[in-house]
Protein 1
Amino acid sequence: MRADQILHPTEAGLYCPPGDFFIDPVRPVARALITHGHGDHARAGHGAVMATRQTLDIMAIRYGEDFAAETQVADGPVRVGDTTVSFHPAGHILGSAQIAVQPVKGPRIVVSGDYCCRPNPVCAPYEPVPCDIFVTEATFGLPVFRHPDPMAEMSRLIASMDEFPDRPHLIGAYALGKAQRLIALARQAGIEGPIAIHGALQRLCDYHVEQGIDLGELIPATADRVPAQLVIAPPSAFASPWVQRFADPVIGFASGWMQVRARARQRGVELPLVISDHVDWPQVTAAISHLAPSEVWITHGAEDGLLRWCELEGIPARPLRLVGYEDEPE
C-alpha cells in the first residue's frame, strides 16, 4: 500500500482511508484522532474522538463533557480498521502526543502534531518514534529561529522584577500549556511568592495541579489591588478593561514569536520572553536527522524552508499545505 493511500490531506484534515479516521480535523467528522488539546487541533462536534486521557480531560474542560458523541482513551497500540495506531509523548503541552499509524501492509507513518524536544516541566518529554514517514510541523521552520534556553529568559524576567520592584509584571501566555509552563519555570528559577493568574487560566491550572504538577501558590488577579508582582494572563486579556486595574505595568509576552522584534513592538511588549513549546530550526532538523525516515511530510508553518533543507540533505520531502492551524486561538 502506498503512503498516500494510508494518509493524505483533505479539506477536513489528514485522512486515513484504511482506518477511516482523521487526525486533528478542522471540521466535524465521524472519527477523529487528536494529538493535543489546543483549539486549532482539538475541536468539538466529532462523532468519536480518540486521544490521551489528559487531552480528553482538557477537551471536556474547554468544550463541555459532551464535546463528542463518544470518546476512547488511547492506551497502548489500538486496532482501528485496517491499521494499528499508537500515541507517543510529543513534549508540547500536557497530554500532547504523536500518532503512529501502521497499516497491515505499508510504511509506518508518525504524525508529530505540535512537538518540542526541550524539557518541559509540565508534560512528558518528546519521544523519538521510529518510522518510515515523519510528518512534522514547521511553525519555526527557518534557520533564523533558534530559541534560547528558557531558564535564561526567566533570568531576564527576574532581573526586570528586581529592577522595577514597584511595577507589576503582566506576562501574556496562552491559557493551555504556555501559562502553566511559565509558572513552573518561574518556580524553578526561584520565584517563591504568590503568582497571580487571570480567571481564564484558573481551571486549566487546577487541572495541571490535579495531575501532580506543582505550580506553587496561585492567587486570582481579580482584586483592585493584586498582591503579587508577577501576573499571568492570556493575550486576549491585554485588549480588555481588565488590564487597566494595573498601574504602570511591565507588559511581557512569552512566545517563540518574540524572537521577531517587530511582533513584540506591534503588541506593545516591553519584555519579550522567547519561550516556545514548538521545535525551532535546530530541533526540527536534529529530530529528522535522528529519525532518518525515508520521507518527510511537512505541515503548517515555514514549509518551503524545511523542504529546501531536506532537499539539500537528500531526504525526499513534500509539503501537505494543510490549512486551519495557527497559534493557540484565544
Protein 2
Amino acid sequence: MLRWGIAATGGIARTVGHVIAAEPDMMVTAVGSRSLDRARALATELGARNAYGSYAELVRDPDVDVVYVATPQSHHLEVAELAIAAGKAVLCEKPLAATLADAEKMVALAREAGVFLMEAMWMRFNPLIRRLQRMVASGEFGRVRSISASFGFPVPERDHRLWNPALGGGALLDLGIYPLGLAQLLLGVPEVMTVTGAMENGVDAEAGILLSYRDGARALLDTSLISPLAGTAQVTGTRMRADLDAPFFATDRMVVTGPDGERREFVLDPGETGYVGEIREVRDRLAEGATESPVMPLDDSLAMMRLLEDARSRVIDPTGAAA
C-alpha cells in the first residue's frame, strides 16, 4: 500500500484525497492542517487514522510515504521543504510555487536530497490530452500551427483567495496555467510572448496571451477572474484539427477532424480522470525508484513558472503601471 499524507483540507485536498482512498493499492493515512479540528474532520471522511494540527507533524509521521501538498501556492515551498527534509515523496498542486524563485528552490532541494517531486498538473494525465499528445508526437496530426484555449469565470467575492495577493492570487497562476500548459505541452517554449490584461485588487484579473514560435506557430490564450470564458480549446495542425470540450484541461470529449472532413469522436472512460492518472504516476515512478516524472518533468514545471512570472509582470494596472 502506498500511504499518503494530505497537507491542507480545502476542496482540492478533499477531491484528490477521495481519489487516493478509492485506489486498491493506496490509502490516506494522515491529514495535516493549521487547524487540528479541520484535519480531524477530513481524516475521518477519508478513513485516515492520524490527524495533525501542523504540517511539521504530518511529515514526521512514519506511516506516510507521500505528501500531497494542497495548500494555496503561497505555502507550497514551506510544506514541500518540510516533506523533502523528512525524506517524503511530494506531489505538489499546480502551480509548483507562487514564484519562480520558490519553485527553483523546491526543485533544487528535491534533487539534492534525491527525493521524488512532481507538480500535480492533472491536465497532463487526462487520457484524451495524452492521446492528442501521442497523435502530435507520431506525426499523425501534422505540424501544429495554432492553438486557442481559454479558462476563466467571474469571482465576485473579493475576499476569495484568488483575489488575495498574499495567497498567490490572480487569474494566471490558478487558471491561466491551463491554457499556457496546453501550449507548452504541444509547442514547447515560445520565442515571443505578448500579454495584455488588467490588474484589480492587486492581482492580475485577466490576461490575453499570444505566444509566437520560431517556425511560425502561434497560441492565442485567455484567462479571467471577471468574465465567463468558454473553457474550450482548439488545436490545428497541417493534417488535423482537434476540438476539446470544456473544461478542456479535464475534457471528457475530443473531436478530431481530418483533411477530408471526416470527424472522429473520442470520449473519456468513466473514472479515468487526470487525478487518477497523476496519483498512479507517483505510484509507478516510486516503484521504479525514480525521483522525477517523464510525463510532468520538473524542468517543464520550472519553464512554466518562468512563463507565468513573465506574463504577470506584463499585466498593467488601471494607471498603466506594470504589475
Protein 3
Amino acid sequence: MTAKLREWLRRYLPAEVLSVVATLVGAGLAWRLAPGQEWWAALAATWAGNVAYFGWLLGQDMRLARRQLQARGRGYTLRSFGRNVRALVVEFGLAELLDSLLIRPALMVWLPRWLGHRAGGILLAKFLADVTFYLPAIISYELSKKRLRRFDDE
C-alpha cells in the first residue's frame, strides 16, 4: 500500500500545489474585478484551479507517453495526444462533473461566509471538495492504467 500511496502522491501532489495557488489567484482576481459577486469568485477559483491541475497532469502524461513511444522508436502523434486526453477523461470525468459544477463552487461560496474569512474559506472549501473528488478519481486511475496509459501498442 505504501508504494501505491507514493505513486498517487507523485502523480497528484504537484498538480495540487499548482491548483491551490491558481485557486487563490482566481478567487482574488474575481473578487477585485466583481466585488460582492461570490458566485463569480467561486467559479473563477474552481476553474483556475482546474486549468492548473489538469494542465499539469496532461503535461506529465504526455511526457511519459512520449518516453514510452521513443523507447520503441516512434513519435508522439495526435492519436497519442487523444489517448492522453481520453485517459484523463476516464480518470476524472464523473468526479470532475460533480466537483466543478456543484460541490466545489457551493463550498467556495458558503465556507468563506460561514468562516468570515475569504482566503481561509476558499482553502478549506478546496480541501473538503478534494476529499469527494479523489476517491472516484483514484479508483478510475487504477482501472485505466493498463488499458489507456500504455503506448507500446501504438
